[in-house]
Amino acid sequence: PPRSTLFPYTTLFRSTYVNRGIAVSFKDLNNNYELNFNEKKIYYSASASKVFDVIYILENNIDLTESLVYRPDIDMKGSVGMKKHKYYDKVTLLELISHLLRYSDNTAHYMLIEYIGVDNLKNYFKEYNLNITVDDPFVRNYTATLARISIERLYNLLNSDNEDYKTIKDSMNNNNMNSL
């Protein structure tokens, strides 16, 4: 089987993390080498589940210049990106996606979830059987395998020549909070 540059550390990873409940699902995209342990253990996803918003919008070719209104009733804690806007400003989907990926912005996530609809998101990703509700729009049945698959799906989308996708990718390549 193919080996990754991480191969020498496989035994160290397993001995250090496997018995501590840490989950890993790694795939080297250069040679398809995979390293998995505890990969089916369920975790609360928090920020990681926000990539489904982005994948849905990009795969459905939704116009990223479309705007949503930033309302005070949807303002959430942990919304660094949205602090740049005032209530009732129109914020483009591209800006919301950038805030979501750069800052893990909760308000941007809630605005996108409201726009997409929880049922639409669950139906679109039915093969993942997402456990998500309107009251708590974070995936509750998140595993390391689901994280790897969704990040790989987003990665493949962002590696196109689309200029908007470059902007989205650039928002993930930052020194602030998240990184690609």
By DSSP (H or I, 4+ residues per run), the number of helices equals 7
**Order of strands across the biggest sheet?**
1-2
Largest sheet: 2 strands, antiparallel
Shape: globular
- How would you spell out the order of helices and strands? HEEHEEHHHHH
Assess the beta-strand content as a share of residues. Answer: 5-15%
Report the count of strand segments: 4
User: How would you classify the quaternary structure?
Assistant: single chain
Radius of gyration: 17 Å
Class computed from helices, strands and strand pairing: mainly alpha
- Work out the helicity level: 25-40%
How is the topology of this model organized?
Blueprint (H helix, E strand, L loop, with lengths): L9 H8 L6 E4 L6 E4 L13 H9 L7 E3 L20 E3 H11 L2 H11 L1 H7 L19 H15 L4 H10 L8
Antiparallel strand pairs: 1-2, 3-4
Helix pairs in contact: 2-6, 3-4, 3-7
Describe this structure in words.
- The protein has 180 residues and is mainly α.
- It has helices at 10-17, 51-59, 93-103, 106-116, 118-124, 144-158, 163-172; strands spanning 24-27, 34-37, 67-69, 90-92.
- It has a two-stranded antiparallel sheet with strand order 1-2. It has a two-stranded antiparallel ribbon with strand order 3-4.
- It is globular, with a radius of gyration of 17 Å.
- The chain starts with 9 loop residues before the first helix and ends in an 8-residue tail after the last helix.
- The mean pLDDT is 85.
